[in-house]
Amino acid sequence: MPVSQKIHGMLSRSSWIRKMFEEGLLLRKKLGPENVFDFSLGNPNVPPPCEFKNALTEVASQSLPGQHAYMPNAGYPETREAIAAHLTQKFKVPLKFEHIIMTCGAAGALNVTLKTLLDAGDEVIIPTPYFVEYEFYVDNAGGVPRLVPTKKDFSLDLEAIRSAFTERTRAVLINSPNNPTGRVYDAETIKELSDILEEKERLYQRAVYLISDEPYNEIVYDGIALPSIMEYCRNSIIAYSYSKCLSVPGERIGYLALHPELAELEDVLGGMILCNRILGFINAPALMQRVIARIQGVQVNVGEYQRKRDLLCEGLSACGYSFAKPDGTFYLFVRSPIADDVAYVRALQQRGILTTPGVGFGGPGYFRIAYCVEDATIIKALPGFAETLQEYQNSRSV
Amino acid sequence: MPVSQKIHGMLSRSSWIRKMFEEGLLLRKKLGPENVFDFSLGNPNVPPPCEFKNALTEVASQSLPGQHAYMPNAGYPETREAIAAHLTQKFKVPLKFEHIIMTCGAAGALNVTLKTLLDAGDEVIIPTPYFVEYEFYVDNAGGVPRLVPTKKDFSLDLEAIRSAFTERTRAVLINSPNNPTGRVYDAETIKELSDILEEKERLYQRAVYLISDEPYNEIVYDGIALPSIMEYCRNSIIAYSYSKCLSVPGERIGYLALHPELAELEDVLGGMILCNRILGFINAPALMQRVIARIQGVQVNVGEYQRKRDLLCEGLSACGYSFAKPDGTFYLFVRSPIADDVAYVRALQQRGILTTPGVGFGGPGYFRIAYCVEDATIIKALPGFAETLQEYQNSRSV
C-alpha cells in the first residue's frame, strides 16, 4: 500500500462522494451546464464587500520593510489588537491582543486547538448532524469523537450531552449557526451547556473546554441575536474564519479567541502557538492579516442570503417538503421523503439538481441544500424538486 | 494538565529556546538595539523582486467572479500548469499540472506528505544536522524519525543511511541546500542514494520515497548546479516554498511536486489532496496562487546572499573560527570552540550577538549563524566574534 492504511481507508470511504462529484460532471455534459443546479458546495457567491477590495489594493500597493516576512507565529500584534477591540464589544468580555491567535481559517484553528488539548484517547463531544470534517480533525490529534444527536428541531439535547461525558471528555465542540442545519443555539442553551461543563469539571477535577466553531457568526436572519459564548462560558475557545463574512474562503484567514479567564490560559496559548507552527501553518497569511485588521466589523450583505433562504423555503414548502427553517448560514437541511437519503439525492440528480446526502453529516434521512447560489438557480430548480417529490409520492400511493 | 501531555513536554523542552529569546529581548534593553546583532532567525532580509510586487498589485486590483472563493483543494489548474511547465525545464522530467499540489509553504507540504505516507511506527530517515521541526512533522503523522549523522563536511554518509533502513522505513527526508549547514548534495550522491532506495524497495517489497525539502533551491553560490532529484530518483517528492526565493515567508505559499512515474501515483496524489483538506490547510492562499502563476522563475538577487556569505566567512576565518563554507542557503554552521555550544552561544550573547546552538539542529558542538541580515550587522559583529573566541583561547592556554 503506497499511502498509510488510515488514509487508504479514508480514501475508500470518501469514494462515493467523489463518485457523485464525477457523476455531477457527467451530468453537466449530458444535460448541459445551464440545466445543472449545483447546491452541493458551501462556496459563498455573494461578492466580498467593497471595503475588503479597497483594503486589499491598499495593502498590496504598500512597500513596508519586511512586509511579507515572518511575523510572530501568533500573528501581527496590530491585527490581534484590532480583533480584540472588535470582539470586546461583540462578546461583552474584555479581550486583549494576547487572547487572539491568527490562523489559516477555522479549519486551521480547530486543528491547532485539538492538537493542543488532546492526548490519545481523549474524547470530544460533538452534536449531530455536524460538519463531518470534525471527525478527521479530532482523529488527527489522536482523539475520539463522541457523537450526540440533537433534538428534532436540531437544538441541543442537553441531557444527552450530559450523559455522553466520561472522565476522558476534554471538550465539547459546537457550531452555531450550524452547518448543515442552519440552527442557532440560544443564550439559555449556551448557559445550561456551560453549567454542565462546570458540573463535569468539578466531578472529574479537570478542565473541559467549550470549542465554538463560528464561521457563520454573522450570517443570521430575522434579527436573531447570536449569544456570546464567552459571556456564558469561562472555558470557551472561539474558532473563527473570515471565509463567510467576507466571502473569501480561498484566502485562509481566521483566528482563535480565548476567554481571558480560561483555565491555565498561558499554557493553552503557548501550546496553540507551538501547534500552529509544528502542524505546518507557521502563521496565517501575512497580507490577509493586514487586510482584515483594517475592516473589523465589515461583512457581506446578509440580506442577500436571507432572500435566498426565503425563496427556497417558500418554494420547497409549497411543493410539500418538510424542514426546520434555518436561523442562519446558507444551508437548508431537508427531510428526505424516503429513508435512503443517498437514493433521494441521486433521484434529484436525474433532474440536474446537486445536493448532499445527510449521511455525509451524520444525519441520515435528510439532505443538505447549500443556497449560496444565484436566485435564478433556486427558481429554475424548484420544478425539479417538486417533480422528484411527486414521483416518490405517486410510487408510494400505487 | 490543561494541554496534552505531548504538547506539555514539547513546551518544556523548547523552553530554553524561549528563555534565550527572552534573554535576547533583555539584551536589547541592556545594550540598546543598535548593539544587538541578531543572527538567530532565517527571515530573509533581501526585498522581494519587483516582479512580485507588480504581480501582487495587479492581482489585488482584479475583479474576477469568485476571485477569493474555494478552488479545488489542490489549487488553481492554471497555477499548477505554470509550475509544471517551469519544473519540466528545471528538473528535466516531463511534469503536468496534476503532478503539482499547491500548499501552505514547505512546512504544509511536508506535513501533508508525511500524513499521507506514514502509518503509526513507520520510520523516516533524516540526515543530521537537520531542521529540527522535521521531528515534529514526523511525529504529527505518528511516524518515528531515524536520525543519521552526515560526514564531517556535512555531505551524506550513504553507508550510514543504508544501515539505518528497516522494514518500517517509508521515506528518506533530505534538505539540500541544507539548513543549518548550507551543504548542497551533488548529482553523484543523489544517484547513489536513489540506488540505495531501489535496493531497499526490492528487499522489503515496498515503495520507499525520497522526500526532498527544497525551500533554498535557488539560493546557491559559485555557479554550483543543484542536481534535479527527479532526474535521478523515480520515487521522489519535492516540497517547495516561495518563502526564500521571493522573500515572502509570511505568505505561506509553496507546492508539492510528484515524479510522474512515482509508485502508485494516483493514490498518493489522492491521499495528499485529502490530507491538505483534513489537516486544516484546505488549500494554499488563493491570492498568492494567482501571483506566483505569473512570475515562475523570478527570484531574489542571490548575489546579495553570496556577498554576505563571503563577508562573514572571510571575517570569521580571519578570527580563527572553523567551518565548512556553505554552497547555498543563508546559514553558516560554525564549529564551537568549546564542546558546549549552548555555553558558547551564551558567551556570544554577552557581546550582543544572537546565534542558535547546534543542539537545536541535532548538531551539538556547532552554532548556526543566519546571515540574512544587513552587511553592516555582519561587519559590526565581527569584533565581538573575535573577542569571544580570544577569551576562550586565553582561558584555555592559562
TrEMBL record, chains A, B:
Q: Which GO terms describe its molecular function?
A: pyridoxal phosphate binding; transaminase activity
Q: Which domain of life is it from?
A: Bacteria
Q: Which cofactor does it need?
A: pyridoxal 5'-phosphate
Q: Which UniProt keywords apply?
A: Aminotransferase, Transferase
Q: Is Transferase included in the keywords of this UniProt record?
A: yes
Q: Where are the transmembrane segments?
A: none
Annotated EC = 2.6.1.-
List residues of the Aminotransferase class I/classII large domain.
35-380
Query: Which InterPro entries does the record cross-reference, listed alphabetically?
Result: Aminotransferase_I/II_large, NHTrfase_class1_PyrdxlP-BS, PyrdxlP-dep_Trfase, PyrdxlP-dep_Trfase_major, PyrdxlP-dep_Trfase_small
* Transferase is among the record's keywords: yes
EC main class here is transferase
Give the family per the record: Belongs to the class-I pyridoxal-phosphate-dependent aminotransferase family.
Q: What is this protein called?
A: Aminotransferase
State the organism named in the record: Syntrophus gentianae
